[in-house]
Prior knowledge:
With about 400 residues, the protein is α+β, with helices and mostly antiparallel strands. It has helices at about 115-125, 145-155, 185-200, 210-230, 235-250, 290-310, 315, 380-395, 400, and strands spanning about 10-20, 25, 30-35, 40-45, 50-55, 60-65, 70, 200-210, 255, 260, 270, 275, 280, 285, 320-325, 345-350, 350-360, 360-375. Strands 8, 11, 14, 15, 16, 17 and 18 form a seven-stranded mixed beta sheet that branches.
Amino acid sequence: xxxxxxxxxxxxxxxxxxxxxxxxxxxxxxxxxxxxxxxxxxxxxxxxxxxxxxxxxxxxxxxxxxxxxxxxxxxxxxxxxxxxxxxxxxxxxxxxxxxxxxxxxxxxxxxxxxxxxxxxxxxxxxxxxxxxxxxxxxxxxxxxxxxxxxxxxxxxxxxxxxxxxxxxxxxxxxxxxxxxxxxxxxxxxxxxxxxxxxxxxxxxxxxxxxxxxxxxxxxxxxxxxxxxxxxxxxxxxxxxxxxxxxxxxxxxxxxxxxxxxxxxxxxxxxxxxxxxxxxxxxxxxxxxxxxxxxxxxxxxxxxxxxxxxxxxxxxxxxxxxxxxxxxxxxxxxxxxxxxxxxxxxxxxxxxxxxxxxxxxxxxxxxxxxxxxxxxxxxxxxxxxxxxxxxxxxxxxxxxxxxxxx
Length: 405
């Protein structure tokens, strides 16, 4: 079994973990290990039934086509050549009739005690092993919910006594630890350095008064949920405002392709989503043509998949412009880095009540700083400032956005 072709741009993967042990009997199409590519984590199924002979090791980087494992197809289930799935029944005395064979239990299944990809990530992040989590999924497989339950139980358990709690002096630790960067983290690092070194990146700032946006959401939120089954969030309003402006200012929506400029007649807006393994930016296609409910649904679906590690490669491709919201973590202002090969990225930030001069009077308003980082090779300074002002005006008077004025 060799590393399969995963995508056009992917030439190498990391074997993140084995789901089966060396010598185990595996069934056809049974997941035996997980690969971590630049963009997603993928399960690798067995191509035949037989005894598994592991060749590649966990955390090893493998090129496409590299040998991962071998399967001895001459070994049949239950034979001596493979690891038995259950312990043999104890010997009985001659005068006793042999006991009937028990029905196979869930723990006898190959899935028993093995976590799903999302569950495995959560276990690694919280330092749990399979013995600490009870699998309630099909055939005893450990689900994400099982891990969350185990984490909650661990937090609820009384903490062991520490030197400080017992009145003893606390020691000064000088311990260090080393952990290999995940493939996604390494890819993110390379792309960020490439964007900083390979583009003429500048950032322009402005601020937006969100009084009317907040009033709009407050007034129509219940009706919106009742009709569409999802909340009207800030992100769809910002995405729609950016999409409308991108259609009017194609330079911000373009990208450099060698000695040419590639323009797009659509706005595929990438939404930055924070995951345990790093930041991913899957795009919402054709935001200029979607309504607010459709944008909200697509963002929610992409965010759910991103945090579970189930985004497909197709869902990660593309994007003509990016929005990132550091405000959810409390960021007041920042300079976001361009998501190459795109030419611009909008940074949203936390909303703060600040005194503002309104028609000669000081009033408290919910204000947000906006940051637009752009590639000066393709976007002029005046263009970037105008773009940000247009987005600001649409958000400060959302009626014009709703009426497409």
